Amino acid sequence: MIQDLVIQDSHPRLSDSRLSDSRLGDPRLSDPRLNDPRLNDPRLNDPRLSDPRLSDPRLGDLRLNDPRLKDPRLNDPRLNDPRLTDPRLSHPRLTDPRLSDPRLSDPRLSDPRLSDPRLTDPRLSDPRLSDPRLTDPRLNDPRLSDPRLSDPRLSDPRLTDPRHSDPRLSDPRLSDPRLSDPRLSDPRLSDPRVSDPRLSDPRLTDPRLSHPRLTDPRLSDPRLSDPRLSDPRLNDPRLNDPRLNDPRLSDPRLNDPRLTDPRLSDPRLSDPRLTDPRLSDPRLTDPRLSDPRLTDPRQKM
């Protein structure tokens, strides 16, 4: 028994648990690529089973997830046929190379009459339209077709107007009435401020000076126009002195306070028994009413 233990301890494969275990000693089992449960389990290795989007047919089908692909043609086998869905394949006129060629399908290219630019372009086929004098709206004028109107001597208003053709009238000195009339060319006559002496006088044109005092010498005299100077009463210093104009100062009777104050001049007003409303009672003046024996009803009893 002891010998077996010694043998087991001395043997490396028996002493090492990794070597004595049959699962760990097998190189196929010790390979990490084989120990990974994701690699050993066939259900996990299959992306269709591990990816929930692929395991669920409703999620894995792009035709069901993509709203752009939710089309009945994806589910209907009859509509999946490109010969039925593609209009270029289902239409016989489109599948014919002779008809699908743009050079052949365009009637302007297949018809030699239409391919001629002289026939297709209305400006070239119609001689009336090819004339720039007729097509240009700026030139669409009856003066181009009428030789009488195309004559510059007739179309130019400066030449047709007799006033312009007559040298006597074309002279600005003659056509301008201000220059032909000597009266109008004279600034003294044309300018109303110069011709009218009344308007040239600033005393008459200025509204601030338009006053009869300017024209009437009697009113222009400040001694007459100023009421302070024209009134002799105002020129008298005795009358202008406020001390003399005040009747209270000039009259000695009014300067006496005994005369000016009504309370001092009237003895009735100076008596407080008469001026005080609280004392203005007939009992104060009537001796019969002031006697308490007559006024008190308790005394009468």
TrEMBL record:
> What are the boundaries of the region Disordered?
1-301
Listed Basic and acidic residues bias regions: 10-301
Spell out the PANTHER family in the cross-references. EXPORTED REPETITIVE PROTEIN, PTHR21523
What is the protein name for this chain? Uncharacterized protein
Tell me what organism the protein belongs to: Biomphalaria glabrata
State the gene name recorded for this protein.
106079412
